[in-house]
Structures are given as structure tokens and as C-alpha cells.
Amino acid sequence: MRVTVDENDIVELYRRASAEFGKRVHAVEGRWDAPTPCADWDVHTLVNHLVNEERWTPPLFAGARIEEVGDRFDGDLLGHDPVATWEQAAKEALEAIQAPGALSRTVHLSFGDHPGREYATQLAADHLIHAWDLARAVGADERLDPDAVDALLPWFGPMEDLYRQMGVIGPRRTVPEGAAPQDRLLAMFGRQP
After folding, report:
1. Which parts of the sequence belong to the Mycothiol-dependent maleylpyruvate isomerase metal-binding domain (predicted)?
2. CATH topology assigned to domain 7-188
3. Which of 14, 94, 178, 183 is deepest in the core (most CB within 10 A)?
4. What whole-number distance in Å separates Cα of residue 190 and Cα of residue 179?
5. What is the DSSP string of the chain?
6. What pTM was computed for the model?
7. Nearest 5°: phi and psi at 48?
């Protein structure tokens, strides 16, 4: 069963998740080579990954196909001011998602065509989980927006096995009975809370 929410809720979910990640980017303070919970990724690589996603968002929501975007966002995108680069990329991605009709459009992804609302939810989930990864890496506050967590839990439940089959998340971690929603979501994404 796939959970759907109102388009305004999806935009707000994405905005909150992006803000959570951005808050942790501002907390890096020179620890760009610190290890993260993501295997083989340091802080620089993790932030670059999210900037890459942000850069892809405007053309994909505008209808571009993967082959049209090509390799223009490959490599190190952070430049000499990673925080400013993040801020600009995040602003442009949010504008693309907020554009009239964006969530109703078909987005052409590497794994098929999907409604914009679904892609925006996927992006929100990635931003939120990686906000925790980044917080863990730099010793920042690991508490995530509880409303965003609550919105993503029912959406991700039916998606979890597919994500694991695609190899984009690790094995589910065990959490105690009655664990907090954030801990349950992190465990579903293969993180040890």
C-alpha cells in the first residue's frame, strides 16, 4: 500500500527535510574529511552527493531526461565554499519542487518514469536520513524533525524492500519494541540509531 499525501504537504515535507540537512551542513565547520555512517563516504562526499541531487532536481522537474542532463553534475560540485554551494543548490531545488504543477508532472528517472510527488518524497527521505548521517559525522544534534519522520514512516514501509533490492540501503537494523519513530525509520534505512 502506497501512502499519498496532499501536494502542499509534500512540498512542506521536502522543505523541512532539506532544512534539516542544511542545518547540519552549517555545523560541519571544517570537518570535511570526517567519516560518516555511509560506507566509504566522508563528510565532503556526503554533502557533494546531496548537492548533486539538488542540481538534478530543476532539470528533472522541468521534464529533462537523464541522457539530456548527461554528466554535467558529475565530480566535485562543492568548490571553494561548500556551504554557499549547498545553499544555492538547495534554493534552486526547492523552487523547482514548488513550481506550479511540478508535483503532477512525470519525472524521468534512471529507474523509470514517476510522478513528481513521488520523486519529491524520495528526495525528502534521502535528505532527512542523510541529515542524521551528517549530524553523526560532525557531532551535531541528531534529532530529526518529528513531523517529517512521521510523514516518511508510512511512505517508506512499502518501499523498504525495493530500496534494499536496489542496493541503496543496508540491512534493516534491530531496534527495541516501542522504539521512537526516528529510531524505527533510521533502522529501516539500515542505520543504527
Report:
1. 15-135
2. Four Helix Bundle (Hemerythrin (Met), subunit A) (1.20.120)
3. 14
4. 15
5. ------HHHHHHHHHHHHHHHHHHHTT-TT-TT-B-SSTT-BHHHHHHHHHHHHHHHHHHHTT--HHHHTTTT-S---TT-HHHHHHHHHHHHHHHHHSTTGGGSEEEETTEEEEHHHHHHHHHHHHHHHHHHHHHHHT------HHHHHHHHHHHGGGHHHHHHHTSS-PPPP--TT--HHHHHHHHTT---
6. 0.93
7. -60, -40
